[in-house]
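haha ok so turns out i had the wrong file open the whole time. this is the CORRECT one, sorry everyone. sequence first:
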Amino acid sequence: MYKIRQIKYAPTSVSIQVYKIVNRKRVIVRHIGTAHNEQEQSDLLFLAKDFIEKMSQQLTLFEANQSTNILYLNQTEFIGVHYTFLYELISKLIITIEFDKVKNNLLLDLVILRMIEPASKLRSIEMLDEYFGIKHRRQSYYESAPQWLTLKTKAENIALGFARKHYAFNFDLLFYDVTTLYFETFGEDELRKNGFSKDNKSRQPQILVALMVTKEGFPIAYEVFAGNTFEGHTIIPVVKNFIRKNNVKAFTVVADAAMISTENIQALKENEINYIVGARLGNLSNELMKQIDKSISREDGKNIRIKTDNGYLICSYSSIRYRKDKYEMEKQIEKAKHIIENPSKNKKLKFTKSSGQNIELNQKLIDRTQTLLGIKGYYTNLEESRVDNQTIIGRYHELYKIEQAFRISKSDLQTRPIFHYKEEPIKLHVLICFMALVISKQIELQTKTSIRKLIHECKKITDARLKNKITGKEIRIRAKLNKATIEILQKLNLLT
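then structure:
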């Protein structure tokens, strides 16, 4: 049995020791410390009792919670910090969105690390231990990761269900776009192909990722294609599959001009899919150009609607766009003139054309471009009686929200470059990034704060790890919430 001994060496000095009797002799087990006043003496006695409780492995008849709150600096060792507050916050959001229903802790932890500090999967496992004290075996990743791809549909359904419940998504309007993700390699295979790169990495293989978001920019579905796939060939199969899976009746897809083609328009009509897409006015016939030039008023906000084979063509005018277009045109004309004056620098530009061995200005193209200055075009099949021109234009301009989602994915979540080389790990990487994007977008929409800023603020709330050298116990002390983190918790409805 352990006992506490108090030895008074001087009027203001008391030594606290823990001892036990062995063969009728007193054996000092641990010197707790020396107190120089009543408060220190009281604190050291609590520490001594805590030590005895730990060593005897017995519960006391009385509450001893106070002892865990006492730190005696001479007997305390600082062993580091954890960012448990940040982990707990994102974990609560995972539960709010219901991603916890995938029932895979390692996958969810990798999603959290992708948001906090993007890294390789194995390095992420190491950082989970470093940052949060959460341990996963590397072998667990190798054993379970191949089965995670079956969770893609479940993750999409969870995101879709959350969008319906919290953002009133009812399938009437869906925004669609694609991007490319390149690899740190120059070798191709069936999935990784060279193609038109949106990252200016045309010499490196890539994949094409299609993303669908709500009007708020909340991601609800995605698809992966080979890197040499023409983006205009993706919209029909992806949208048709989405409609089939969700048994959608009325549907309108919004996409940029790259998605428009006579073939796509026909397919959309055949499948009774409403569409709002950008129009490339430079490709219009001369007759249609003349009709636009004659009909449209060069006043801000004015628009017209013309029936064409691709649906209704809506054109609107903006003086701001006019100034921008004019500046770009004049800059390109100056470059063209410079090339003409310096034929040794034989470079083909927009407003040049070949005439025998010479290069000259393409005045016809300049005239066409000048006619369209300040004019933006949109195609739709929606009747004006259902949706007016201004609403069509407004919906198209909301496409910037999907571009924001791609920026978050590429910059904050560092989706690319990709270092995987096999199809399964590549698709698993995209799944993790999609789930992280859903959570990140929820944070952005609710707090009006970027995921980077939120993580920066929440990392300030650290858990100091202190080791009681007397008992061997680890004690954690959390920093107080600051004003910024309290506001974040309030906006996310996580403040309890």
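The radius of gyration is 33 Å.
again sry for the mixup
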